[in-house]
Structures are given as structure tokens and as C-alpha cells.
Amino acid sequence: MPLKDSLLALLVAFLWGAQVTAVKIGGAELPPILMVAMRYAIMALFLMPLLKRVKREQFGPMVLIATITGTLHFGLLYCGIARVDASTSAIIYQLVAPFTLVLAFALLGEVLKVRALVGILLAFAGILVLLAKPPASGTFVGMLLVALAALAFAVGSVLAKRLGLLDPLALSAWTAVIAAPQLLLWSFIQEGGQWASVHTASAQAWWAVIYTALSGGLLGFGLWFWLLGRNSMQQLSPYLLLVPLFAIAVSKIMLAEGISQRLVIGAALTLSGVALCQLRLPGKFFLKAGGSKGQGVADEQR
Asked: Could you list the residue ranges that cross the membrane (predicted)?
């Protein structure tokens, strides 16, 4: 991969990692669901030119995917991050990879290889380490919400692949347009004092909202789709593993969050598991699930 592309992939990982801290900063003054609604409203203004007409039979499934990956996913994620520290949130969110593999196996009939199975077990073991010390009830709820957000994103991703809908940029545009009003309605029903919080929010909170929309959202995803057009997913996958590391580093600098031994162990297990799920490793060390005993296979990227 060219050096320029490597540096841009590194930048994307940083932008997405820092987004967790921005959510924490903004969520300290703004209701989380309202905050993500504002994020999508800003994104929708910029993505309007990318809206494309869709066939009538595709519109329903597209609304479903946008609702799951946009409204449900980010609503749960922001609510979860508001209740738990940024570092732990970033680690738990890595469950997207094992959740996606399991759902692809169940819904798409994709083969789960031994490498992937080991990775899934390691990832969940890392999350159990984070839960080893009984957390406060609010923190536990936050961790559960982040895990459910990861599951929601995995469900939406698998459905999008199964249905073969719009190109990624067009789907991002439709997601923003659909999710923004849905999230505003969700906030109106569940949250209180939204508009008062908007009027009293500091400049720091507003910059956090703008960052999540423009930098972490539009710029991050725009660069990522551009890189995908020039490089393979196998080349780019390792950079995704840097996202939680940047999230931990930025949260430590900006929020002065501590790093416990339990977090280090949990992160090491989870990221090792995610690496096994995502990266191509020498096939001679693994057997294909369901294959004959002793038969080595080339472990291919799924």
C-alpha cells in the first residue's frame, strides 16, 4: 500500500478513535440521543447531493437498514458511552467483528473457520475480563448498551450485504436523512430538557457535536471509502485495530481516564480475537471448520 494511503488510513483510525472522547465531552451537557440526532442532521445537509433514487422494492429494506445501522446503532452507542468510560466503550465496541462473523454464518451461510472461532472466543473472553469486577449498575447498563450497539451494526451490515442495496456513499446519505428525524422523535419521547440543554451547552459541547459529524463522520467515512477503492480490505483491516488504541490514548489525554490492569488484559484479549477474525494469517496453523482431521487449508480472507 502506498505511503500516502497508509498515512490516510492512520488518520481515519485516529479520527474514529477520538470520536469516542468527543461523544463523552458532548454527552456531558447534551442528552445522548439528541446529540446523535444533531450529528446526523448536520451530516444530512452535506450528503444531500449523494441521494439517489431507489427502486420501489428496495425502499423498504433500505429504510430498515438505515434504521438499524443509523438510529438504533448510534442511539444505543451514544447512550452507552454516556454511562461508561471511553476506553471501555471502545474495547466493547470491537464486538462488531465477531458478531458480524456469527451472523454471516447464520444468515448468509458463510463458513466459520477455526481461526475465526478462536478469535470470537478470545474477543468475548476479553469482554468478560472487563466485567470480572462487578461494576456499578449504571456502568453495567452502559457496557450492555455498547455491546447491543455493536450487535445492531453487525445486523445492519449483514442485511446490507444480503440485500445488495445502494453503493456505500448513497446508503450513508439515505441513512443520515432517515435517522435524523427518527432520533429526534426518540429523543422527544425518552429524554427531557433537550432544548434547555441546547441553549446552555458550552462551545466545547458544540465543537464535540461538530467533530462527530464532520471529522469522525463525513471526513472519516469519505476517506475510508476512497481508500477502499484503491486498496483491498485485507490491507486496510489492520488499521481498524488501531481505532480502540487511539480511543484509549485520546481519552487518557483529554479526559484523564486511568488505565487499569483489567482494561489492559481485556483489551489485549479482545483485540487479539478481533485480529484473528479480520486478518489473514498463515493457513497451516488452522483447520477449516468442518474439514477432515489433519487437513491444512489456506486461511483466506472472508
From this structure: 32-51, 63-84, 90-109, 116-132, 138-159, 171-189, 205-227, 239-256
